[in-house]
Each structure stands twice: as structure tokens, then as C-alpha cells.
Amino acid sequence: MNEPTQAPKPMAKAFTSASILLWLRPELPRESALEYWRGPHAQRMARTPGLFEYRQHHFSAGGQGLWPNILGAEPPQPETRRIDGMQELTFAGALSPLRGAKQRRRIHQDEANVFQRTLLHLGGPGWGRWYGSGNGEKVGDRCAVLLRRKPGLHRRTFHQFVNHTLGPSLAGIPQVKELRSQVFLPWLKELWNTPGVAHANPPEDRFDASLVLGFASEEDMGAFFASPQVNGLAGELRHHCSALQAYRISRTYTYVVEGRPALPQVKPERKPSLAPLKRALPTPPARAARTAGSHPFPEARLLRLSGEAPEDVVADSEGRLVCGVKGGRILRLDPVTGKEEVLGNTGGRPLGLELLADGTVLVCDAHRGLLKLDPRTASIETLVQFVGETPLRFCSNVTAARDGTLWFTESTHRFDFEHFVGAMYEHRPSGRLFRRDPDGHVETVLEDLFFANGVTLTEDESALIFAETDGYRLSRYWLKGPKRGQTDILAGNLPGFPDNLSRSQDGKFWVALVTPRNPLLDRLGTSPGWIRKALWRVPDALQPEPAKTVWALAFDEQGRPLADLQTQRDDFYGATGAAESKGALYLASIYGNGLLQVQLPR
User: Fold this and answer.
1) Domain 293-599: CATH architecture, name and number where available
2) pTM assigned to the model
């Protein structure tokens, strides 16, 4: 008689980790406190050296008591003792918790701004476990489970139970898509004794382990807790645990991924590391070596602004120009009278813009995500700050369809706007294209793009055209017809670095070229990684500047070139945005403090 086939044991990776239990300050509105935690406090936490991953778990206001009462457990926690959330820290190595003393002091000083009480639970070396289901399904709902060791039970016995019995047993249940376990060292207040914050943790209230469980849906979570496998663990849990508390997690945010901060910087930060990828590039076309187009460059004049580094420019129906400058201001300039107005301030770093029919302005802000500005009130609405569980790190450009669907790009999820050159040196595709539906749902459409940048719709909205700056190409993503969902190259092996695109009008759109192709940068794609890492360590002030050229190309919607304008100027170069209005082409640049008005031939 054949023995029954046993299910394979779930694979687990061992990590050194920590969990910080958190109670928000009761005098603060809950949403305001949560916003501070995922904003300024996350910035400090994510910059801590030695982290491999950093996640925030925000507990639901009334989500305790999920686990069946199989322990004869304690009654639900009173409101004053109910935990509001947990920070999950996974370290790069066993000694990593010893790093970052200076940054920890900054975190300690900040805690009193948002937390009433915090408890750090540090695990021993390799005491944490990540279990992978191998199915690649998305996690839609999570819960956190806290376990208290039964009095008199040896710590080693409890440790073995969590990591060798409970964890593998739960990870093998079909509904579980994610499982993290952590066994705590004996709690010591001295490990996290922040001033102005309570750290009371009487022995009878202490926990000794945590679990984070992820499911595809709320229904799957319910099926898990009602499953015979969970109820079959009742005896083991009663033997090893004196208390068990399960909290529903309303949102999870991930701020450090594989050792790299995943959120945009809000103040100058040190350069992130480089992970160069070998990549062979086609030989640049002969046009890349020339410094002028096929026709003389038209008459042009510089329109000075009160701010610096406008990255994009768009024109309204009256011919007025709208751009965003360093410091966050959104300006509107009348090119005829020279009158400048401030429409609002994002408080971040505005990049790509799009004007909507109702007069509002879509703003891709490198620090704050996708925003909408109402010039009538100067109010700012955040449309997209997170995609899934990670922050939108480098929102670059956006275009709007007539039905309200928004298409926008993230140039790279590995570097901030301030460090964009690192993505060029790395030659690693990390850009993305997103769609935001009118109901607010955001979907990732394309990944692994070479510095995704400008984006526009064709006039009939049958396709989306987008630029890949480090791919030297314009691509077309089909939205309708037999090729729907497919991508093809509209114009490849361009002679320069394409940046923002103007909205297509009369079957034509403009492309701003920042600088000509750089043969050295192309060769770096196949050079040893250490060379690129050495160049990346060179201070920014010593990095090469773009060529002092002004360059813009026009194409039709089939990728055929229509115009090629290039000249050399000292007062304006490195065009990053382009917009045509009332017989003129207007160019923006992050390397100056004005817009260039180019009179187009009639």
C-alpha cells in the first residue's frame, strides 16, 4: 500500500528582525497622526543604516479578536491599551541593529510628535522567518498576531514551537499568501528608551513573538481562521501560549526594499548605491554628432521667471504658459505682457504638468506624487502617493484622457529626482507606466522601462505615446483595436535623450531632447561595474554638465519626423519640456531660470 504523499514543507528564509508596537497620541486626530507616521516619521526610519526592509502596519480601529478563542484567552483589550500599529524592521545582517546610532537619536526625538507609547521587540540573530508561498498572488488583506509565552515554558521550547511548528503549519494553509514570524529577545526598556514617550511594559502584558499573515482577500482571511488546520493547532497553542491577540491590518506601507529607501527624499540625502547592469546599445545615428538641424534655428528669446529650473511647460487656451519651479511654486506667465502669477505651491518638486478642461492642473511632483492643483483656490489634492504598498518615488509626467483616465510615468523606483544620473550610469530598467481610473484605482501597466518620462495620447486616444530617456526611444502602447495591450517602438535609436512630450495636436507632438547622445555613457553600458561605481562617487559638482545645446524634435503619430530644431546658447540649454502655442514653441529646462520662446515658421 502506497504511503500518502505529504505536502512539501514551505520554504523559509531566516532574518534578524525587530517589531515596534505603537500607540498613537490620543489628543491627535487619528488620521493626522497616521499621516505623520507614514510621512515625516517614515522618512527618518527609512534612512536608518543596516535595514533590508522597513514596513509599517496600520491596525484597523476595531480589528482585534480575529483568532478563534481557543486559549480561553484574556478578554479584548480596553480602548486605552489597544495597539494602533506596528513597525516591522528586517535587518541586512546580524550586526546591523548596532548601526545607525546617530539616525536612531533623530528617530527618538521625533517619536513624541506622534506616539504616546512605543515598545521595541528585537529578535535574535536569524530568529525571524519569511515564508514564501511561491504562487505570486497579490496580498489584499493582512493581520498581525502577537503571542505570549506560557509562564514556566522554556524560551528555547517556545522559540522552536514558533519557528519549527507554528510557522510551517500556518504557511502550508492554502489561503496564506504571506507569512512572517519573529521570536523576541527578552524585552529591555533600555533598547528603545525614547524621551517623552511611555515604555511601560509590565511582565504580565509582554509578548514574546509576532506573526504577520497575508491573504488575497478578506474572504480568504475568514476562511483561514475558520479552517480545520487553524483549529487543529489549538492544543499546541494552549501548551505554549498564555495569550494570543490578532489585529486586522488596514494598510501596509513598505519604505525600504532590499536595502534601498523606496520613498522620495524631502531633504538632501546621500547617494544610494549603484547596481550596474551590462547593456549593449546601438551605435548612435550620425545626427547625434551634429550641432544643428537641417534648417536654420528660428528667432528665439528668453522669458525670465522668478523661479529656477522649470522642468515642463504647458500652454492654456489663452496662450499663457504654466510651469513648476524649484521650491514647489506653480507659475503662470503671459508671454505677451510678461505678467507672472503664482497659482499654488506643491511644497515639493514639480515636474511634468497637464492642463485639464476645467482649468485645474495635474502636477507630477517628485517628492509628493501625482497632484491636482485648483488655481482658483490654490488648493492641492493628492491623487496618487502610493502604488500598492510602496510610495510613488519619481512621478515624472502625466496625460489625461477625455473620460478622466490618467496615464502617468515613474522614471525610476530606484533613485530620487535629485540622483537621476545614477539611473543612467546603472543602465538598469526601473521605470513604470501607470493608469489611474476615474474611480481612483491605480494599475501598473508597464514595468522595466529605461527611465520612463514624457507621455501623451494620440488625438483619437487609440494609443499612448511615451518616452524612455535612457532607452533613446519613443514607444506606443495601444489602447484600442487589434493591438490593444501591445507595445511597439514608434521612433528608436534617437540622436539624443528624449524628455517630456507635448500633447498631440493636429497629428503632431514635440519632444524635448535634453542633450545629444553621449558615446562615453553608451560605452559604460558594457563597462565593468566598478568603473561606473567610481564615477558615481564623484561629487555632483564635478559631474559633467549636458552640452549647451537647445534641441527639440517634432513627429507625427506614426513616428515620422516633421521638424528638427537645434542651436547653441549660453543662456538656455538642456530642454526638458516643450509646448506649442499660437505660432511659437516654448521650451523649459531644469538648467536655467526661464522659458525659451521660439517663433515657428508659418
Assistant:
1) 6 Propeller (2.120)
2) 0.94
